[in-house]
Amino acid sequence: MTRQVFCQHLKKDADGLDFQLYPGELGKRIFDNISKEAWAQWQQKQTMLINEHKLNMMDPTARAFLEKQMEDYLFEGIEPTIEGYVPPKA
Q1: What are the tens digits of pLDDT across the range 35-80?
Q2: Regarding the domain with residue range 4-76, which homologous superfamily does it belong to in the CATH classification?
Q3: How far is CA 89 from each of CA 11, 23, 44, rounded to the nearest angstrom?
Q4: How far apart (Å, rounded) are the C-alpha atoms in residues 2 and 19?
């Protein structure tokens, strides 16, 4: 049986994540409120952001930047600005 959550990003009931993928309070919030589908969408955007900004994930500043983008995207519905990327129209 797949765990169901009300996904705050997609605004619908959907399959929840199998386990907490991100540490700390934010990770718990994501686990409780974000679906697999929304997390997969974020993963694609995260990869684009890392590549575009040439982020070094060992750098705390880069990690903080990415975490802010992730939180804004997943919980506020704010699309990250990615050069040359136009989100598909809903």
Answers
A1: 999 999 999 999 999 999 999 999 999 999 999 999 999 999 999 9
A2: Fe(II) trafficking protein YggX (1.10.3880.10)
A3: 17, 32, 17
A4: 11
